[in-house]
Amino acid sequence: MNKQLIIKELEKIVREGHILINEPLKNHTYTMLGGEADFFVMPTTVEEVQAVIRYANQSAVPFTLLGNGSNVIVRDGGIRGIVMSLKQFKDIYSEGNKVIAGSGARIIDASRFALDQSLSGLEFACGIPGTVGGALYMNAGAYGGEIKDCLESALIVDAAGDLYRLPAESFDLSYRTSNIPTKNYIVLEATFCLKQANYDEIKAVMDDLTYKRESKQPLEYPSCGSVFKRPPGYFAGKLIQDSELQGKGIGGAEVSMKHAGFIVNKHNATATEYIAVIEMVQREVKNKFGVELEREVRILGED
Ligand code: FAD
Questions:
Q1: What is the rounded average pLDDT for all residues in the chain?
Q2: Are 10 and 82 in contact (CB under 8 A)?
Q3: What b/e sequence results for 154-174 when a residue is b if at least 16 CB atoms lie within 10 Å of its CB, and e otherwise?
Q4: Is any atom of ligand 1 closer than 6 Å to the C-beta of 25?
């Protein structure tokens, strides 16, 4: 990989100041872990996104998309090639009872925007720290609601760099999954279909969910939220709690005392330590209860 050549080509595509070289990814992940991205690219237009994808394809430069980094762990060796952030795509607006949000907008902000318009349907997302794009990718959900319930359509760029608007059904949204990873879609914008409702009632629901979240989750430490999916017939947190793993850790990473489903970066952990705690939890729960805990969080990059 000829780094200088890649930089030169990327500079032709995205505007000045929107390519960071050897960018530490701990600045872009909720766990505050991870090595560097060779090229951290922040396009500002659809055409720039398309051109970056086409360039990465043609020149076989590895390509990774990052949202708010709240559901990924980046390994200590970082990520080779291009890491694209869509944080510039952050506009949120409404048309009647629809809220339209750029993929880089925080889903929390889309939820607050809906409240301001007295639109109900995105209350569940008021504390999910990801972007709109990241929320679609994994059909984010909480407290009985999920993206699938209110998504109408999304604007996407496919692996070849072509632009489409697709209806919600085309994403096969189900419990914490979609077909976005297999299709390699890049979400640029989402349209949510909501219902007019009473402002105070929407706000009361959001206040209650915020209280629940703040009282139960260790939000004072960096983490990636719930590390594991809910195994059929069980709760991951309860299995971890009953395996007496809370407070146990490796290096600076440990299973949260406040919420057993969370692993926190308590004292300047490395990604290697954090991942070792994940594997320890999977092993112990399997030994004790015979249940395989499947990770919800994605691990990216190299050691
Ligand atoms: P990232 O973590 O950056 O990326 C995750 C994946 O999404 C990556 O593979 C990335 O390539 C892909 N992706 C990102 N943007 C796009 C895009 N525009 N197009 C296509 N793919 C994209 N999740 C819940 O569901 N419910 C919760 O209640 C919840 N609570 C959390 C609490 C805390 C404290 C934390 C840290 C996390 C929590 N999460 C929760 C997890 C996380 O916030 C969600 O999974 C969120 O949807 C991830 O979005 P992101 O932008 O951070 O994505």
A1: 97
A2: yes
A3: bbbbeeebeeeeeebebbebe
A4: no
pLDDT (tens digit, 9 = 90+) per residue, 208-260?
999 999 999 999 999 999 999 999 999 999 999 999 999 999 999 999 999 99
Q: Which of 280, 171, 269, 287 is nearest to 228 (CA)?
A: 280
Paired sense of beta strands 19-24 and 36-41, if any: antiparallel
Hey, CA dihedral for 279, 280, 286, 289, is it positive or negative?
A: negative
> pTM for the whole thing?
0.96
CA 88 to ligand 1 centroid distance, Å: 17
Show the tokens assigned to 292: 């395989």
Distance CA 256, CA 234 (A): 19
Q: How far apart are CA 228 and CA 275, in angstroms?
A: 12
User: Cα(205) to centroid of ligand 1, in Å?
Assistant: 22
| Domains, in order of start, for the chain | 3-85 (3.30.43.10), 92-201 (3.30.465.10), 218-300 (3.90.78.10)
